[in-house]
User: Fold this.
Amino acid sequence: MNVSQAMRERRSVRAYLSRVPQAADVEKLISDAALAASGGNLQPWRIIALAGEPLERLTAAMEGAQPQEEGAGFGTSYPPNLWEPYRTRRFKNGEDLYRTIGIPRENKAARLEQMARNGQFFGAPVGVFVFVDERMGYAQWVDLGIYLQSFMLLATERGMATCPQGYWRRFADTVESLLEVPDPYRVAYGIALGYEDRDASINTLRADRAPFGEWAQMRGF
Assistant:
């Protein structure tokens, strides 16, 4: 599989088989992703991967965890009062997702239950946390995004599936306390990792992309 194929095949997977990736494969994936570009070679990411009993302990703790207030720390995933065209894109993506599992918009309880599955890594056998020193700036968050994309493409190439999760920033205090993460490191995001359950209807979602002319220009060609 080449990079172009991995780009086309990668997607956010929200249902997994129970098969656990080998520890050596996970370690190599985490390590190889760190070849990602990094401004000044700061390499601002810090990683903790969980499986087995440590993962079970974390997901059990999430059942009673309370989210931090929206906007506290790194907790915000989207700007407030999201504007167009971003509002419509986000709305459509959510509707398309819930349609795959037959949850209508008016069934708020079922939607909240599905949202809470983020806290179980969607049943993935491996949960990966990426942390960053809270003193870092926007440029280093760009580096974290490059690391994430590298991680996901490499996982796809190696037959594994992923789901990136900003959700965990809302529960940063719970995660950092349980994992004894030292200050000043904070949760940047989580990644569900495992093997895709191809029979799960939720994994039929294929997010579309805006047409090229809506967001790009070619000048001087």
The chain has a mean pLDDT of 94. The longest strand covers residues 185-194. The radius of gyration is 18 Å.
